[in-house]
């Protein structure tokens, strides 16, 4: 593995706006040495440049914040975190005050408390709505602050009428500016963290508001539906388009056969909605809960994740074969993964010329929809028009994906509803179920068996790891375990923005049965070096794409995994709120632990996958039938809108 | 060579951006220049500017909507901005305003049908001792009286349009 050449500090944000947190790697001795801060009389030694907020945290003093977020750059706009600093005439925002000389700070004097209370009162005077009619009730940072500071009346009034229209134009994200407190977390998420640039502040002073380009509806501007803004919104101003009423209606309708597929990431995170620590997997308790809610069948999306690996892996092999043996210069390489609908839309908008590089294989969610309404319906004698497919996803973009017009290859809408983790947690609570206390139960046949490879799709690098496990074994004929301990391909794991791995293919084995009709032998791959890369979050994807455009090292790659959200699906826009780097790594640990617990950990060894190729997709991976049902095409959207 | 309006506009913006090394700090000068020439900044222009400077269209919109003097709506050849702050108000901006509205047949915030004049309010321009003050494009007029309004408007009319009797555009930069 060679080090990645991509600069981590290429954030577009001006230097002054970049995060002030300084890594304490060198045993607390950062460049420039340390400085002593006296907070409420207690001394603490911190690296030069540490914010008052971080220094206070170290000695257990919690300063309330609202616009501050661990994933985002400093804003200092909400003024909730004000503190008294000796020698400063006015109160200072603790989140935006780097300690550069010994200072004395007081964090809860009368002046400070009163100012914070006034700030909260002022925020509430602009915040329309009643808490009990809000999706963020009990999970709202403004509500929590109001409680903490004992707000018992509206000192500066409370709006009686909504000021803005609610923007429901997007399939995924709903914007309700009436609840917005202008903390600009969504703006920093969209522009700095994701580099998509859908929303910004327009206007000035008391007339400023968060908006899209020319106030157009969200559904018609450049938005990739990643929902990262939802995860970081402190109030209910941003929320996902919630289909739970429709799902309940389908469950209540006796004529409908309601099938749900659950993705791996929500299972690792849903416990957070029930007060459990991040990283507590509840896969089997969730199955019980879903049955008790009334879903007729519960399937594991991992099954189609395995199918995706077979299809996408075969597509890669075909591309490589055509390019290396056929010397076909028109073959687009590297091949990009297409599982993340946020990334797919990002590419369609910003790098439409690279659409041929995108794998034509559908995402696991859409494959499942198509398989349920054809293979499953046929096998069980159910009329596909009576089947309602619901997908439990960590993702808000999946809502958009299932509504894409081309996603009806089964003859019906392949996936009817996309549910997020949060929405399902709500349904489970509504059904009166105490999820963590439920008994365990397994998935339903015929898509019950999954492999560890499917599970790790949820974390960044997971698709690549799953693909490598399969490709290595199919091509070399040797076990992955002989190359990587316990088949854990560590180099592609972790939260580094961009990862790059080279794998020399020294030996080749016989062509397995499943691929015999496509390639005669593997000799053309002997001695080749497989170059792969992994990027998560569209800001990192952008770095890789720019490098490819410039003909850099990533243009030499063969296969690149892209995920739209930071951390991959576990950090998806449908996951429980809040999110932070620690929460995401806890969820990732749960996912990798679940993978390690599986007996079968490679997609091509999944017996159900092999069965579907024998019974249904009889012309094999990337055959005619699988192309009809499991593959799709993309729309060049461009970044210009009318 | 035939060129669509859009291609021409895009070419102009590109040239302008290149003068500034495609740096995002050049956003305001580019917007000013395009606005001066086309008297509006449409959606397409904003997107081209964003593209050239490596920022997002919504950021251009954000900046344009922040500054009262930028604004993306179409406006007339002459933007008349009358100061509405306290000292100009006390010195009779109300009468000047009425005179202008009567003369042009439009209200403040509107543009005449022939696209010559737009009336806008402005806040203090530092001419408090010589109020009422107003701006016609970039030229300041002080101690404006209702009688002078007519004169000023005539001066503008003479220098612009098919019936222009004076060729030079006196106060257009």
UniProtKB/TrEMBL annotation, chain A:
It holds the Pfam family Fe_hyd_SSU. GO terms for molecular function: 2 iron, 2 sulfur cluster binding; 4 iron, 4 sulfur cluster binding; ferredoxin hydrogenase activity; iron ion binding. It is found in: Membrane. Residues 171-190, 214-243 form the 4Fe-4S ferredoxin-type domain. InterPro entries: 2Fe-2S_ferredoxin-like_sf (IPR036010), 2Fe-2S_ferredoxin-type (IPR001041), 4Fe4S_Fe-S-bd (IPR017896), 4Fe4S_Fe_S_CS (IPR017900), Cytosolic_Fe-S_CAF (IPR050340), Fe_hydrogenase (IPR009016), Fe_hydrogenase_lsu_C (IPR004108), Fe_hydrogenase_ssu (IPR003149). One of its GO terms (cellular component) is membrane. Keywords: 2Fe-2S, 4Fe-4S, Iron, Iron-sulfur, Membrane, Metal-binding, NAD, Repeat, Translocase. Belongs to the complex I 75 kDa subunit family. This is Iron hydrogenase small subunit. It comes from Candidatus Geothrix skivensis. The lineage of its organism: Bacteria, Pseudomonadati, Acidobacteriota, Holophagae, Holophagales.
Automatic annotation (TrEMBL), chain B:
One of its GO terms (molecular function) is NADH dehydrogenase activity. SUPFAM superfamilies: Thioredoxin-like. Binds 1 [2Fe-2S] cluster. Keywords: 2Fe-2S, Iron, Iron-sulfur, Metal-binding. InterPro entries: NuoE-like, NuoE_dom, NuoE_N, Thioredoxin-like_sf. It comes from the Bacteria. PANTHER family: NADH DEHYDROGENASE [UBIQUINONE] FLAVOPROTEIN 2, MITOCHONDRIAL, NADH DEHYDROGENASE UBIQUINONE FLAVOPROTEIN 2, MITOCHONDRIAL. This is NAD(P)H-dependent oxidoreductase subunit E. It comes from Candidatus Geothrix skivensis.
